[in-house]
Amino acid sequence: MLEFKSICIHNKRSMSVELSQQNRSTTASTLSGTYYRWLTKIKNNNNQEAVSAPHQHSLISDVSGKLLSGQVTVLTGASGSGKSVLLRVLAGLLPMDSGEVCLQSVDPLHNPSYHSIHDTVPTQWRTQVSLLAQRPQLLEGSVLDNLQMPYNLQAHQHRNFDMDWHITQLSSLGRSADFLQQEANYLSGGERQLVNTLRLLQLSPQVLLLDEPTAALDSEVSTQLVHLLVNWARAETQRTLLWVTHDTQDVMPFADQHWSMQAGVLSKVF
Ligand SMILES: Nc1ncnc2c1ncn2[C@@H]1O[C@H](COP(=O)(O)OP(=O)(O)OP(=O)(O)O)[C@@H](O)[C@H]1O
């Protein structure tokens, strides 16, 4: 289960205003007279702007929620409303200005443990809370090279690559084992997303954050991928999915929760 509370993120403009205010204060303490009064006036003007228009400077405002184990949560909202920003924060890829994200796990003896994002090494956090990004980055080489790549990383060196598992998943996506030998550089956008998805799923994170995973796929493969992801989530009780999409048709029948993001504010639809 992943719980997040009171997350706030300001955009760069407001951060640069805050920083420049701090710099001006430091400089002003060494000055006096006209220049000091001028600096104070600028500072006050900036403060008035921030007070009169607080939401202009927030990408995410006081956002809280719970992703329960075994559940699929669908997140919708207008373009630019902050959905991807929230996913990146939960994955530990974007720092928050305030708030908490906490992962609850249960060991084989059913003892719960809690890990705060603030106290966990980022690489360790991302082995359990993984983001499937909108624009997949693949390396030069074959599909197989890309799928095997994570096992070179220290965080996954103790795991073994399972070729049979990949062939089974590819078959459910209408692809034969020959797909593994294709050059990643020549893949279509949709095929790149399939490789990216399998590359993450094989590592078995507890929380999977999906940023429009079916956007580049035709409707047949899109339906196949939705089934693959939902089946994957349901295969282990601790897994949970947070699914950002503009196309709810395929995934909504599997949704346990539906959230909506509007201008950085999260609300519950059900
Ligand atoms: N690191 C950042 N610093 C400042 N602004 C950012 C940053 N990342 C995103 N933004 C801005 O935050 C807003 C929300 O972006 P986000 O990518 O979360 O939108 P979205 O809801 O996922 O949209 P879409 O549905 O089109 O993918 C946008 O205006 C974007 O320009």
Automatic annotation (TrEMBL):
Pfam families in the cross-refs: ABC_tran (PF00005)
Keywords, in A-Z order: ATP-binding, Nucleotide-binding
Keyword Transmembrane helix: no
ABC transporter domain boundaries: 42-269
Residues making up the signal peptide according to the UniProt record: none
InterPro entries (UniProt xref): AAA+_ATPase (IPR003593), ABC_transporter-like_ATP-bd (IPR003439), P-loop_NTPase (IPR027417)
Name of the molecule in the record: ATP-binding cassette domain-containing protein
High-level lineage: Bacteria, Pseudomonadati, Pseudomonadota, Gammaproteobacteria, Moraxellales
